[in-house]
User: What shape does this take?
Amino acid sequence: MIGNILIRDTLNAKELNTLLTEFPQYKLLNLDLDKPLISLGIEECSQIEVIYSLSLQQEEINFLPHLHWIHSPSPYLDNICVNFAKKQENILITTTKSENLMQVGEFAISAALAFAKRLFSWEEESLHP
Assistant: This one.
C-alpha cells in the first residue's frame, strides 16, 4: 500500500518536486485549510500517514486510521487537537520553531519518511538478508 502525505499549507513547486523525487513511494495530497478533510474521500483519508498542517481537529483524526505523524510548520499548536492525538499513543507531533520554517519542515518530513522506510538500515540488512 502506498501511503499518503497530506499537505495543508503552502509549499512552492520546488519544495513539492523535491518531496516527490525523494519519496516516490508516497502520494502527496494537497488540501486547503478551509476545506474539510473528508472532501478527499474516505479511501484517501484512510491511507494518510503524515500531515503537514497548521490545523487538525479531533473529528478529522477519526478518518485517519494510519496517521503516524502530525507536523505543524508553526510553533503554536492551538488549532491541533494535541490531547486527543496523544491519547492515540502512535501519533508523533512535531513543530517548527525557526525562521526557516519551510526548510525545517521539509527536512522533518524527509527524515521521518526515511526512518519509516528504514532507508538508513540497508547496510546492516544486506549483511543479514
In short: Helices lie at 13-22, 42-46, 58-61, 82-87, 101-116, 122-127.
